[in-house]
UniProtKB/TrEMBL annotation:
Residues 7-67 form the HTH tetR-type domain. Keywords: DNA-binding, Repressor, Transcription, Transcription regulation. InterPro entries: BetI_C, DNA-bd_HTH_TetR-type_CS, Homeodomain-like_sf, HTH_TetR, Tet_transcr_reg_TetR-rel_C_sf. Gene3D superfamilies: Homeodomain-like, Tetracycline Repressor, domain 2. This is TetR/AcrR family transcriptional regulator. It comes from Cupriavidus basilensis.
Length: 193
């Protein structure tokens, strides 16, 4: 039989696998843990996805698409450009501090864990980063036209500087899960715009 069996066409299995990889990273996710979380046997898992690497890449893309949808909704939402950037930073802090067992951003974890040794992860990370950069650049261009941001530096440069602060904030959210510290970083980031 060629192709994926019909019962694997939904996103449920990918989302369940994403949950395992998100919690444990690629190296820390055993096939057994993937089988338990997805509800698939080892043979079914490999028949459906080929191997752990292929499943990981699908899960990583799923995570990125989820993130892009949420971030796009925030950056294209109501408010001034500055208010939208604040909302994005607050969302990031909320994500990193949520729940009794917070998890790091899977995208950042993947880039740090696998980006240098896995060209496919590097490509996915680059693709996502370019899309995110484009969304930020649009917000900065709007802010320059409205006078919310200085036009003294190109919008792309401002977007890249902000992106660096955003990712730094997300890393701090995992290494120093202190809401007060993270909100100080947020305020400092916005004050420099």
């Amino acid at each position: 039989m060629s192709g994926r069996p019909r019962e694997f066409e939904g996103e449920d299995v990918i989302e369940a696998a994403m949950d395992v990889f998100w919690s444990h990273g690629y190296e820390g996710s055993s096939t057994q843990a993937l089988c338990e979380r997805t509800g698939l046997g080892r043979g079914s898992l490999y028949n459906a996805f080929g191997n752990k690497q292929a499943l990981y890449l699908q899960a990583l893309r799923f995570y990125h698409e989820r993130g892009i949808r949420i971030q796009s909704g925030i950056l294209n939402g109501p408010g001034t450009p500055r208010e939208r950037l604040r909302a994005l930073l607050e969302w990031g802090i909320g994500e990193d501090l949520a729940g009794p067992h917070p998890r790091s951003c899977m995208a950042l974890f993947a880039a740090m864990e696998r980006g240098r040794k896995d060209p496919a992860v590097r490509e996915i990370t680059h693709e996502y980063g370019a899309r995110f950069e484009g969304m930020l650049c649009h917000v900065f261009a709007l802010g320059q036209r409205s006078g919310d941001f200085s036009a003294g530096r190109p919008a792309l440069e401002q977007a890249r500087a902000f992106m660096s602060s955003y990712y730094g904030l997300r890393v701090l959210g995992q290494s120093m899960a202190d809401g007060e510290l993270l909100h100080d970083v947020l305020e400092g980031t916005l004050a420099r715009l």
